[in-house]
Amino acid sequence: MIRQRLEIKLGQKMVMTPQLQQAIHLLMLAKLDLREEILQETQTNPLLELEEEGDWEDSAPESSIDLLPSGSETVDKGVEEETNPDPLMSWDYSLHEDMDDSGLYQEERSIREDPESDFSYEKVLAAPTTLEDHLIWQISFREMSSVEKELAHYLIGNINEDGYLAVSEEEIPEPWRTDPEMFPRVLSWIQECDPPGVAARNLRECLMIQARLLNLEKTVVWSVLESHLDDFMEMKYKGIARALSVSVEDIQEAGKIIRKLEPKPGRPYFRDMAMPISPDVRFYDAGHGEIRVGLNEEGIPRLRIQSAYKSLLKTMEKKDKTREYIEEKLRSAMWFMKSIEQRKKTILRVAEAILRHQEGFFRRGPLGLKPLVLKTIAQDLGLHESTISRVTNQKYAETPFGIVELKFFFSGGLPSQSGSEHSSVSVREKIRDMVHGEPKNAPLTDQEIMNRLGKEGIVIARRTVAKYRMELDIPPVNKRKQERVI
């Protein structure tokens, strides 16, 4: 017999406040999206207005709020209400920091107003549908939990221009690893989307997804992709034919089908898309061998609260509904401004941590890159891995070696004979340099590249060399005898 009864339990739980949700949302935005968000906020909140260049003052915020506490991105609601000060107590609020350079804004204005300039907002705003938008639209039709939806959006956000998933299961933040079945389940949903082969982790998986959609599982095509792709890339048709007990003609026919598959499913979405990139941070040589990093706020509007409302509040009664409305909008404006301030500080802190861990890159280029994972930076800064993921996604850095996404500095490692690790990015660069310097009449095979890397103390398999070579768009050895790849 089931009995119903009422119980009172006392406990504590963490909640996600609307203000914190807004702060996290702003942290995720790319630079152009942040600009639009700021302009939209000025339209919905009458207390906010844009600062003019002549109004910028050298002053710092009077107070700050830790929006992203260590180990969790939620705060206790009761604690927040006690620690959140009345915004009327600190009306004069400015966002200027010492690192800001008003010359950057002047430069942007001169480019915009120059009649001979190629700058055009239409080129930015009238862009075609991106691969990310296309995938999010498709996945929205599938029934899934809120956690699965968050993971799906995270994985889609980590699909590169070629359409490949650029993050491994081990690099997924902890909250999404509690259920070991969630990652493969959500990934399989994304891989069912258009374009065929999207979200694959390597070339073999990409081609096999397309072959499955064509119902080729029980054909020679499937057997070649599943077990002999490397030999097929090197055109070892006779060896494949013997291994599969079929004729060479069968392998050649299978090859015709395989060559019609798309090795880079994301390519159509990035063709002729010259999207301008404005870096969020700049790494520069400060002289005397010192490398520094600073924020680049070029193109980001500055906000202030309209002072006219200050005198208006003084004349209003405390229980006036209009006063209550203005105070509510004031608190909202203050939090929005502080969320933007916290976004800047968090991005800068992550960039400074990257500089500490990847100093070799800023002195020697990609060959100096070391293995680095999100967890290392998270522990260094006392933040959550998901926070570091948000900061590095769609955020760019200007370096002495070009503009790169902050995610570029995070890569897995390959073991070495000395016990240390080599970044997979630096190993790719070594392979590129070897191919660039190889004799034209005797190009290096994957085995020879593996042997040369082994002499440098890098432990790597031949299959891994072939994988990196394909990722660099370097043809196999028999093709390089006729065409040179740099």
Helix content: 40-55%
Termini separation (Å)?
78 Å
Instruction: List the uncertain runs.
Output: 54-127
Kindly report the average pLDDT value. Answer: 78
Q: What's the total helix number?
A: 23
Largest sheet: 4 strands, mixed
Strand content: 5-15%
Global Rg = 27 Å
- Give the strand order of the largest sheet, numbering strands 1, 2, ... along the chain: 3-2-5-6
Strand element count = 8
User: By helix and strand content, what is the structural category?
Assistant: alpha+beta
What is the 3D shape? globular
Oligomer status:
single chain
GO molecular function: DNA binding; DNA-binding transcription activator activity; nucleotidyltransferase activity; sigma factor activity
Pfam families: Sigma54_AID, Sigma54_CBD, Sigma54_DBD
Protein name: RNA polymerase sigma-54 factor RpoN
GO biological process, one term: DNA-templated transcription initiation
In short:
The chain is α+β, with helices and mostly antiparallel strands and 486 residues long. The protein has helices at 18-28, 31-44, 77-83, 102-113, 121-125, 131-139, 146-157, 182-191, 203-213, 220-227, 229-233, 237-244, 248-260, 267-270, 308-314, 321-357, 359-364, 374-381, 385-392, 424-436, 446-455, 462-471, 477-480, and strands at 48-50, 281-287, 290-295, 303-305, 396-399, 402-405, 413-415, 421-423. Among the domains are: 131-269, no CATH class; 281-411, no CATH class; 422-484, Arc Repressor Mutant, subunit A, CATH 1.10.10.
Word description of this protein:
The chain contains 23 helices and eight strands. With 486 residues, it is an alpha+beta fold. Among the domains are: 131-269, no CATH class; 281-411, no CATH class; 422-484, Arc Repressor Mutant, subunit A, CATH 1.10.10. The model is unreliable at 54-127 (pLDDT under 50).
